[in-house]
Amino acid sequence: MAGLLTCGLVFPFSSYARREYLIRRWSKKLLAICTVDVAFKDHSGGAVAEHAMVISNHISWLDIFVINTLHPCHFVAKSDIRSWPLLGWLCEKAGTIFLARGKQREVRRIYEGLVHQIQDGKRVAFFPEGTTAAQGNVLSFHANLFEAAIEAKVPVQTFVLRYVDAQGKFHPAADFIGDMTFVESMGAILRAPRMTAELIRLPAIPTEGAHRREVAQVARAAVMRELGVADPA
Predict the structure, then answer these.
(1) Looking at residue 11, what is its pLDDT?
(2) What is the pLDDT of residue 184?
C-alpha cells in the first residue's frame, strides 16, 4: 500500500533519482513482508557495466523486486502481469514495459523504445527465457531483445537469481510455474519458511561486433555455469 500511495501521490513530483530511491525502498519492504531476504553476491571480477542492458534468469514474480533492491530497472515483462491485483499497477508505475505475446509489430515498437531508453542512460532489463522456469532449470534464451543492446552500443550485464532455504538448497515455494496463479504463489510464499534470494552479478558481456544469438548463447551459458546446471542438449 505504501508503494501504491507513493506512485500515485509522490512520483508525479519526484526526480528520476528520487524515484529510483523510492523503488528500492518499497521493493525491500515488500520482500520483507514476504519473508524474503536478499543476499547480493558480486562474481563479476570487476567487469561491471553501469550503462548496460540487464538480463537474468526468471523464476518468480519476486524477481523484479529483488533486482530493484539493487538497481531499479525498466523491465520488459509479459502483459499478463499488468492484470495482477495491485502489484500489476505498481510494476507499471515503476517503469515496467508490458509485452503481449505473439505480436511482432509490438515487439518491434518496444524494441525501438528500448534502444532510445538505453541511449538516454536508463537501465533496461528483461528475462530472455520469456517465462519462468523451475529452479534448477534454465530455458532457452530468446535472442530478439539482445539486439537493442547491440544497437545502443552497450554491454549486457548478466545477473543470476536463486532462492534458497536455511540449508542453502533451492526453496520450493519460489517456483512460479505452470498454471499457478499469482494469488496461489503469494499464499505459498507467505506460508513457507523464510527464504533468501541470492542476486549474483556476473561479468558484463561486450556486444560490439557481436550477433544477438551469440550474445544470448554466451549469457545463457554463464547463467548455467553459475547455477551448476547442465545443458540437456
Answers:
(1) 67
(2) 94
Q: Which residues contact 190 (CB under 8 A, 6 or more apart)?
A: 34, 35
Q: Which of 225, 191, 180 is nearest to 60 (CA)?
A: 180
Residue pair 215/207 in contact (Cβ under 8 Å)? The answer is yes
According to the 3-state scheme, what is the secondary structure of the chain? CHHHHHHHHHHHHCCHHHHHHHHHHHHHHHHHHCCEEEEEEECCCCCCCCCCEEEECCCCCHHHHHHHCCCCCEEEEEHHHHHCCCHHHHHHHCCCEEECCCCHHHHHHHHHHHHHHHHCCCCEEECCCCCCCCCCCCCCCCCCCHHHHHHHCCCEEEEEEEEECCCCCECHHHCCCCCCCHHHHHHHHHHCCCEEEEEEECCCECCCCCCHHHHHHHHHHHHHHHHCCCCCC
What was the pLDDT predicted at 101? 62
pLDDT of residue 100: 67
The pLDDT assigned to 122 comes to 84
Question: Measured between alpha carbons, how far is residue 53 from residues 75, 78, 103, 178 in Å?
Answer: 10, 18, 22, 28
Give residue 3's pLDDT.
66
- All residue ranges of the chain with pLDDT < 70 are 1-4, 6-11, 13, 85-87, 89, 93-95, 100-107, 232-233
Nearest Cα to 165, choosing from 18, 39, 72? 39
- CA–CA dist 174, 102 (Å, integer): 27
